[in-house]
Amino acid sequence: MDERLRALSKKERASLFPVILREYDPVWPEWFTEESERLSNLMGERIHRLSHIGSTAVEGLLAKPTVDILLEVGEGCEVSALLKAAARAGYFFDSETSPRGIPMMFMKGYTADGYEKRVFHLHVSPAGMNDELYFRDYLRDHPRLQREYAELKKRLAQAYKHDRDAYTEEKTAFITHHTTIAKKLYEKRYDP
User: Fold this and answer.
1) How far is Cα 131 from Cα 68, in angstroms, rounded to an integer?
2) Which domains can be identified in the chain, with CATH numbers?
3) Residue 174 and residue 69: Cα distance in Å, rounded?
4) pLDDT digits over 20-31, tens only?
5) In the predicted model, is pLDDT for residue 45 greater than 90?
6) pLDDT computed for residue 178 by the predictor
């Protein structure tokens, strides 16, 4: 992470990285494919599964232009090796927002001058801890729900433009409710 970025206060970061929503861009799956190949080459056997998650993985859905990637790791994956591999891929681990252990989250595309063109969040979880896949699939299969979710995100982006944590937290009940339904509907689809 750029030391200038690390030196910024939480309030300064919130101002520098507001919640921005964009119409769906078909380039996002391409970014995922390119990035997942890069990660596969660097992390090899640590990877159980790499998946494109989040709103950029749902065609037609309004989204923050951040490609979210779920990296499911196998048993025995060492956190120190994971930290080193992610750093080699250009990701940084922000210990203020993530615990030091799996699950954890890495970020890429944040600079002291704002967002880069391509921004990624790498969510690392043990194999089988993959609720995001069920929610993604449920959104893909239910266009009405996509519209409802987009409206919720618009309202929250206006209310919490400079508070990403609150924006995310306010979506939790919606996501949890529909993930529960999806896991029943798609039972065991993503079991390890």
Assistant:
1) 13
2) 3-185 (3.30.460.10)
3) 20
4) 999 999 999 999
5) no
6) 98
Residue 144 has pLDDT above 60, yes or no: yes
| Listed residue (15, 25, 94, 93) closest to 55, CA to CA | 25
CA 56 – CA 98 distance, rounded (Å):
22
For 132-151, letters b (16+ CB in 10 Å) and e give bbbbbbbbeeeeebbeebbe
DSSP 111-166: ETTEEEEEEEEEEEEETT--HHHHHHHHHHH-HHHHHHHHHHHHHHHHHTTT-HHH
Pairwise CA distance, residues 190 & 23, whole Å = 28
Q: Which amino acid is at 175?
A: I
Residues of the chain with pLDDT > 90, as a percent, come to: 72
